[in-house]
Amino acid sequence: MTSPDMTRRELLQSATAAGGALAGGQLLPGVAPPAAAQGAGPAPAPLDIVLRVNGTEHRLTLDPRTTLLDALREHLHLTGSKKGCGLGQCGACTVLLDGKRVKACLSLAALVEGREITTIEGLAQGGELHPLQAAFIARDAFQCGYCTPGQIMAGVACIAEGHAGSAQEIRDWMSGNLCRCGAYDHIVAAIQDAAAATGPVREG
Ligand code: FES
Ligand code: FES
């Protein structure tokens, strides 16, 4: 549970005072992420929170400015989600929040308590790869692999949203995930394969 002594308003004030700006629980792109500002001024009181990640609850005591990405990587040692830009621009940190894709570098851990967080580590079931993971391998959809976890998580959401109807639609809806290696054609092909295998489920 988030500390009852700190209201949502106080949490937001704490984050914005640290150099971030928030919208809908996410830091706005183009502003300093909280990690970059944590050296400025005295640290706020830590918060006890429970994060539900890949079906398991984790109790953590965190600086309220901790991003979801840092909570996953630094505190839970789930390093599949990658830190690229830290500014919401590359998509390397993409995870699912209640099934919707979010950039974990722009989300505060304290604001996603009680939500279902899914990371790349939680996609495979019973030792079997998710169809999109298998398609990425079959289509050779990566080179260095740094962007791959984020691409796969965004791709899973893209299919679930019903935005995988054509190559161009996939390109449009995956435009928030950059690949410095330029593996885009193979990524699109892998998403098309997985969409054909699983069928889109349009939400909302
Ligand atoms: S690290 Fe989050 S968008 Fe680049
Ligand atoms: S595979 Fe290298 S950045 Fe995408």
Give the count of helical stretches. Answer: 7
Give the ligands present: FE2/S2 (inorganic) cluster
Number of strands: 7
Radius of gyration: 17 Å
Unreliable stretches = 1-6, 11-25, 28-32
Helical percentage: 25-40%
Please give the alpha-carbon distance between the first and last residues. 29 Å
Largest sheet features: 5 strands, mixed
Derived structural class: alpha+beta
Spatial strand order of the main sheet: 4-3-7-5-6
Overall description:
The protein is an alpha+beta fold and 204 residues long. 32% of the residues lie in helices and 14% in strands. The chain contains seven helices and seven strands. The protein has a five-stranded mixed beta sheet, sandwiched between helices. Strands 1-2 form a two-stranded antiparallel ribbon. Strand 1 and strand 2 form a beta hairpin. The longest helix is centred in the last third of the chain and has 15 residues. The N terminus is likely disordered. It binds FE2/S2 (inorganic) cluster (2 copies). One FE2/S2 (inorganic) cluster (FES) binds next to loops.
